[in-house]
Write a structure and sequence with these properties.
Distance between the termini: 16 Å
Order of helices and strands: HEHEEEEEEHEH
Number of domains: 2
Length: 238
C-alpha cells in the first residue's frame, strides 16, 4: 500500500506544482508580448516622425532610438569597424561602420554604411571607397544589443586598431577611441548618396514573436504534462 501510495502521490504532486507554473510562465510571456507590441507601435510611429538632428552635444540613446535622424560631418576611416559574418543573399561579408565627425565639436556618430562582400579571403580585407568632404547622413538611429552570445571575450584593443569585430559593442568602442561618440549607430538610408553600399535593412523589430514563441512552448509543456499524467493514471487504474 505504501508503494502504491508513492506511485500515485508523487506524480500527482508534481503535476499540481508544475502545471500552474507552466501556465503562469506562458501567460507572463503573452503579457511581455503585449508590452512589446505597444513598444513596436511606438517605434513605428517614430519612424514616420520628422527627422531629428544629431549634433555635437551628447544625446541619450533612448531619445534617439528608432527615430529618423540627420547628421552633418566628415567620414573618418582611422577607427572604422567591419562587422564580420554578415550574410546577404547567401554571400558572406561585412557591415561597414564608419565614424562621422559631426560639425561644431569633437563628437562622432557611427554610421552603418551597409554590406560589402568578403575579399579574396579573410586575410585580405575588402577595398571600398569612402567619400571625402562634408556628408549629410540620414537614416534610422539604432542601439546595438549589449548582451550577445559569444564563444570568447573579445581581445582588448591595443595600439594597432583592429578593424574586424564580431559584434558592435558601443562600450568597448567608446573606451578604445580618443573621442566622444553618440550612443547610437545610424542605419544609412537606402536612398542616401552619402557613401553607402548594399542597404536592405529589415523592419526594426521589438521582439514580439520571440515572446509569443516562448508562450507557446510553456503552454505546450503544460498540455504535455497533463496528457502524460492522465495516461499514466489510466494505466495504473487498470
Amino acid at each position: 500500500m505504501e508503494r502504491n501510495f508513492k506511485r500515485t502521490f508523487i506524480p500527482t504532486l508534481a503535476t499540481l506544482v508544475l502545471f500552474p507554473l507552466f501556465l503562469y510562465l506562458g501567460y507572463w510571456q503573452l503579457q511581455r508580448a503585449e508590452e512589446k507590441r505597444a513598444l513596436q507601435a511606438e517605434y513605428d510611429r517614430r519612424a514616420h516622425d520628422a527627422p531629428m538632428s544629431i549634433g555635437s552635444r551628447p544625446q541619450s540613446a533612448e531619445a534617439l532610438r528608432f527615430y529618423k535622424v540627420i547628421a552633418k560631418g566628415y567620414y573618418e576611416t582611422d577607427y572604422q569597424v567591419l562587422l564580420d559574418n554578415r550574410v546577404h543573399q547567401g554571400r558572406a561579408g561585412y557591415h561597414v561602420i564608419t565614424p562621422l565627425h559631426i560639425e561644431g565639436g569633437n563628437m562622432r556618430v557611427l554610421v552603418n554604411r551597409g554590406w560589402v562582400p568578403l575579399g579574396q579571403d579573410r586575410k585580405q580585407l575588402p577595398v571600398f571607397e569612402t567619400p571625402q568632404g562634408q556628408q549629410v547622413v540620414t537614416g534610422v538611429a539604432t542601439v546595438p544589443m549589449e548582451k550577445v552570445f559569444m564563444l570568447a571575450e573579445p581581445e582588448p584593443i591595443r595600439d594597432d586598431w583592429q578593424p574586424v569585430w564580431q559584434h558592435m559593442d558601443m562600450k568597448r568602442y567608446s573606451q578604445a577611441v580618443p573621442f566622444p561618440v553618440q550612443p547610437v549607430v545610424i542605419l544609412l538610408d537606402p536612398a542616401s548618396p552619402a557613401g553607402g553600399f548594399t542597404r536592405e535593412w529589415s523592419r526594426l523589430d521589438a521582439g514580439i514573436a520571440v515572446h509569443q514563441g516562448y508562450a507557446f512552448q510553456w503552454f505546450a509543456l503544460a498540455a504535455a504534462l497533463l496528457a502524460i499524467y492522465f495516461i499514466l493514471s489510466r494505466r495504473k487504474a487498470k
